[in-house]
């Protein structure tokens, strides 16, 4: 009788444990989580500056991109930071890469360098400093999460106007050529890097850029989102 009673108790405990485990999230592959028996979520980290984060007059591309990828069960995490340069991002990754990337996202959307263009506008030869920083950033991400696909973007156009952040068109073009060259180099080295030429492919024009000559209007952000979406899934 005691053995029968003990067996019933063990069975009940086993069933209870099974119910608890069934309700827990399970990591099934880098960047993807089972949140119930029928749903997987793909993590995408959007990494960059204010073009990624958005500002008072700019709706980030993340919102439109989330809509475009609605059928793919994605979560796009905002890791944009206004004013961030390549040097800032390299330092941020040194200090907080766990918080920034979390558990191996499936994709990182990396667009950085706009603030370096502003910083080095009067001495564009110093963009090589930013190029070295970007190379370091790509290596850090690849080392931390080798299975993560990095989509490396050229930066968005600047408009030629008279305000403080305008007139940097030539420096922006120079920086984007460096980005394209680096993307090819890293891919040839075996890193999971794909170039997304937002500058040329998005169709962003002066009419999509705010009066400061730098930040995007909603129409510009939407065009950037459509460009990212072409390279995902």
Structural notes for this entry:
This protein has 233 residues and is α/β, with parallel strands linked by helices. It starts with a helix and ends with a helix. It contains nine helices and seven strands; from the N terminus they run H-E-E-E-H-H-E-H-E-H-H-E-H-E-H-H.
What is the helix tally?
9
Total tally of structural domains: 1
Unreliably modeled segments: 1-38
Round the Cα radius of gyration to an integer and report it: 22 Å
> Please, what is the CATH homologous superfamily?
SGNH hydrolase
Kindly state the mean pLDDT as a whole number? 84
CATH class: Alpha Beta
User: Which of globular, elongated, flat, extended, rod-shaped describes the shape?
Assistant: globular
Instruction: Tell me what the CATH architecture is.
Output: 3-Layer(aba) Sandwich
Distance between the terminal alpha carbons, to the nearest Å? Answer: 59 Å
Secondary-structure blueprint of this entry?
Blueprint: H1 2-22, E1 26-29, E2 32-34, E3 40-48, H2 50-53, H3 61-68, E4 74-80, H4 86-101, E5 107-111, H5 114-119, H6 127-144, E6 149-153, H7 169-188, E7 193-196, H8 198-201, H9 218-230
Parallel strand pairs: 3-4, 3-5, 5-6, 6-7
Antiparallel strand pairs: 1-2, 2-3
Helix pairs in contact: 3-9, 4-6, 6-7
Features:
233 residues, 7-stranded mixed beta sheet, Rossmann fold, 47% helix, 16% strand, single chain, alpha/beta, disordered N terminus
